[in-house]
Amino acid sequence: MTYGPPNSSFKPFALLSITVMLVWGIAAIDGASKLTPPTSQEKWFPNEHMFDGVIDTLTSGFTSGTDANYVPMSFTWGIDGIDRDVNENGEKFNKYKPNVNRGSSIFNNFDFTDKDVRNHIKESCQLMREQLCPADGCNFDTLIIPDKVVCFIDELEDWHSATYGNSIDDVSDDELLVRVKKFRKETKPASSPIVGSWEKYIGFVDDKLEYVMVTATMSMYTLQSIDTKRFVLTSLEELLEKIDKLPEAQKAGKVLTESGIAWTWMDTEQGLVDGLFNGFLICFPVAFLVLLLATKNLIVSFHSILSIGMIVASVLGVVQMMGFPLGVAESIAGIIVVGFSVDYVVHMAHMFIDGSEHDCNTAEERFAYRCVLEFGMQ
Question: Fewer C-beta within 10 Å: the chain N or C terminus?
């Protein structure tokens, strides 16, 4: 079989090939640059697979309130953190078994009987209701959906006034705790009058009031891109800064916040992106050095690393054009394809240079020499 490289006798074809590849490379790079992390659970099976059918049914096959579409959030006073070394069975926490030996709460001597502490919680609730959110990710003008702040202390004061005819500020500390227990046991949140409970909001541990919680529903949908969530997070950080600057903040202690996977998954998404591009920052310089050592030719090494970059961009560009996000599989593929492309390009570049040792002096002769050795063509 005789193989004659088309660019050996028809130079316009070489120019056309280079032009087409450059145009495609630019389009692929543009597509790759638009890749974003997934905004929903990644799918590992075809749409018709029974596993996906079960997930879809559980997700959308049951009627739920509109609040389920938004990010829930909680603000807790009285807990400093978790001691991972203290567990009921004496074993330490293992990050590879996150649901086992999770640790014990570290309480900070929270004193709900202090009037300043109660005022701090009330003022914090008001700040939550008033916090503005100009980000596109907020579906209202405020960070929290109007009337979606469940502030137990407001309902406690109303209940106490209706039941005892006076303010909770007018009773002794011991009597206040007794009445708070009564409120916790006998009433339900106005937002959930049937199945609701104050147990998670007012935390008695071993008959001592250790912590209190306020919950809210953010005006951001649950499944949003990392860029959308980043701007919403700015408004949330502004709110937390305002709470920390309240006059009674030192007495009340720091507030812990929790919002499910909204922010933790954002860190995971950012980790996927950072891992991919950090991998590129490591792989490409190393690949260039390998090419330089293998070919001992700077020009060939430069063109080779450019080819590798185009191959990687082509893979990621096609991923974006097909509508896939930058998920776990795509990030891994982006790293692996560097290794595949380096292996292939190194062989071609090395054979191209090796041709000069076998009386192949022109580019066409070296190209033909490489094809004979690489592909067995004659």
Answer: N
